[in-house]
Amino acid sequence: MNDDSFMKYTKLPPLTDEFLFQIIFCMEDQVNTYFIDLKQQNICESIFIEERIKEDPNRFLALPDWLPSDGFHTMEKFVSTLRNPIYRERLKQVLQSGKGIFRQFKDVLHEQPSIERLWYYFKDKEMRNRIYEWYDLHDSAFSLASLHEMGPDDDTLEVIKEDFVISDDFVSYKESFEQFRDLCIERYNEKHHSYAPLITQDVKKAWNIKEDDFTLFAITNSGEAAAVIVYHYFVGERVVEIKAYMVKDEFKGIGLFHLLFDSLCEKMKIKGVDDLVLHFYEDSLQIEPMFREILTKNMKKSVYLSISSWIDSIK
What we know:
By secondary structure, this protein is an alpha+beta fold. The protein has three domains: 3-62, no CATH class; 68-154, no CATH class; 163-291, Gcn5-related N-acetyltransferase (GNAT) (Aminopeptidase). 46% of the residues lie in helices and 15% in strands. It contains 13 helices and eight strands. A five-stranded mixed beta sheet has the order 4-5-6-7-8. Strand 1 (34-37) and strand 2 form a beta hairpin. The longest helix is centred in the middle third of the chain and has 26 residues, at 113-138. It starts with a helix and ends with a helix.
């Protein structure tokens, strides 16, 4: 094959969403081998083009590999980023089991549709990134930077929106609200810190629904209340206070509080509310980083210290 023949095939097909899907489908096929026909600008299965590959090898480019080991490493990476403690631990155990890992992994994910959807979103991003790198390597006219702008959004909230509906129907979910309240109070009662009674007192007060208090629930497609926000709307003051909030353990780490918070803000903006107050207690401090990118004001702060340590420090 002379240089002129080689230079004929220097451009890959446009990487549209449809073509990306075709490449991913072929990469996941662990039985057959596929090539891109650089002349016809399409994908061909190797069994049908064996003679043509021999005649004009530069015309065909093998798709990037996606081996079982790649799938396993992607599973490991996903589990390491999963914030739900229950399913993170269960999936870790599956990865360490050594037998039927892929089937077990899928079975566990299937129990929780929202986490299963996050997995497919994560896996799709990993495979797309592999394709982007491969395109960048083989196509001199291909711009990795511009392609990433066409890639999937990092905002996983769009992924879980399909699994939940937002409801302000307190009457229908009153029993669920009471379960949230009782569980939250019980957990603070179980704390063994000397300051636990003080926090428990504040938590009980926060969950005590009054006339101007409202609720917002995240409901699964099966009708289960997965999370709740309790808020107080100061009519005429254009400010709303989030008094209490809780996400069930099996739904933690997928962005449900974020989804509820966004829904509340949109709801309040329509009502002409300008400001929002949010309180943090111990474990709930983990959501504070969510607000780092916007300007917030600290209204008050509570600290806990040892008197003995303080006395020792001033001696």
